Structure formats: structure tokens, C-alpha cells
Amino acid sequence: MATGSRSKTRSKPADDVVSTPAPGAAAGRREQILQGAQKLFAEKGFRETNLGDVATQLGFRRQAVYHYFPSKDDILYELIDRAGRSVATSAQPIMDAQTPPTEKLAEVVRNHVRQLLTNVDIFRIQFSELFKLTSDRADMLRRDISAYTQAIADVIAAGQKDGTFVDVPPMTQTLLILGMCNGTTEWYSARSRPSIDEIADDAARMALTGALSR
């Protein structure tokens, strides 16, 4: 006959049970997942990577990754948002400075290229994937990019107003310049020359050469 005493043997936690870490540890865990996913997205491609791959890469249980990010799209959104904010935030003091449009445009281009090539993997992923995504969050990220693009167009419009820049629609010029800058992510390699700063300087020189009124 069974007794009323409790068994001292504890069952192992179920695979879908994830303990809640302290706030600092949780932030560290999220950052590990983001960095691990970014590495895999860059190596294997976003479409070919799943959350199980991220968990294996980090030595986590799959449920630990799901605890922080319900889908790989959520990881992608956060990586793109973080990268986009780094570009916009670093450019804002340049936009706000009381400097001539030529100087302002050159510095914006330098900053843009430096930001891209310092974290080239995520920008390569962004350029490949963002415009394929259909969700409110993706729309918000695209609006943020549009706002940044418009701010650069405003700089060019100011240069046209004082006769410095060529009479080509400001948004057209902006998209051509950003296309040139964004294209550096396709061929840049940290193992080869020129350096990031040299590429940024060359891009600024090329942008001004095309923008200046003859």
C-alpha cells in the first residue's frame, strides 16, 4: 500500500519551462541572442536561418530564445531598428549645426558610410530583407528611413536655394547619393584597403562633385 509521504525525487524541468533571470542577466541574454542571430543571418542568410539554429549557436535551449523573441522576424526588426537609429542619431548633430550645405552634406555622407561599414553585416541584411517584410513594424522602420532621407534632401534643397547645388530634384540627388553609399556594403571587406575612413572621405568627395553647381 502506498504511504502518504512525498517522494523526494524531483522531476526535471520541462523543455518549455524557462526560468526568469534577473533584469541585468535578461538584458545580457537578449544581447547574446541578437549578436548570435546577426552572425547567422550574415553567414547563412536570413531566410535560411531559424531560431533553433540561433539556440544551437549559443548553446541555449530553443525555448530560451523563444522566451525573448517569438520569431526571427522580431530579431530582424530589432537589429534593423538599432542600426537605423545609430545612423539617424549620429547624423542629427550634423543636421542641426549651423554650417553651409556643402559641409553639411559632406559630413552626413561620411557619417553614413562610417555607420554602414562599422556594422556592415546588419546593413547587408537590411538592404536585402526589409522591403520584403509586410507588417506594421516593417512599415514603421521604412518610415524612419524615409524621414532620414528627407532630412538629407532638405540639406540639398538649402544648397540649391543659395545656388551651391545643381538644379536636380533634391530627393533624386539624395537617393542617388545614398545608393552610392549603400553600395559600399556590397564590396567592402575589413581585410582589405581602403579603410572605412578613406572610403567615407571618397564618398563625400564624389557626392559633392556631383552635387555642386557648375
Radius of gyration over alpha carbons?
Answer: 23 Å
Alpha carbon gap, first and last residue:
101 Å
Count of alpha/pi helices: 9
Shape: elongated
Spell the H/E element sequence. Answer: HHHHHHHHH
Category from helices, strands and their pairing? mainly alpha
The overall strand count is 0
Spell out the CATH superfamily of the largest domain. Answer: Tetracycline Repressor, domain 2
Helix coverage percent: over 70%
Number of domains: 2
The first-level CATH class name of the largest domain:
Mainly Alpha
How would you sum up the major sheet? none
What is the fold's blueprint, element by element?
Elements: H1 23-44, H2 51-58, H3 62-68, H4 72-96, H5 101-118, H6 120-129, H7 136-161, H8 170-187, H9 196-211
Helix pairs in contact: 1-2, 1-4, 1-6, 2-3, 4-5, 4-6, 4-7, 5-6, 5-7, 5-8, 5-9, 7-8, 8-9
Explain what the structure shows.
The protein is an all-alpha fold. It folds into two domains: 23-70, Arc Repressor Mutant, subunit A (Orthogonal Bundle), CATH 1.10.10; 73-211, Tetracycline Repressor, domain 2, CATH 1.10.357. The protein has helices at 23-44, 51-58, 62-68, 72-96, 101-118, 120-129, 136-161, 170-187, 196-211. Helix 5 (101-118) runs antiparallel to helix 7 (136-161). Residues 1-20 have low confidence and may be disordered.
Which keywords apply here?
single chain, 214 residues, mainly alpha, Arc Repressor Mutant, subunit A, Tetracycline Repressor, domain 2, 2 domains, 0% strand, elongated, disordered N terminus
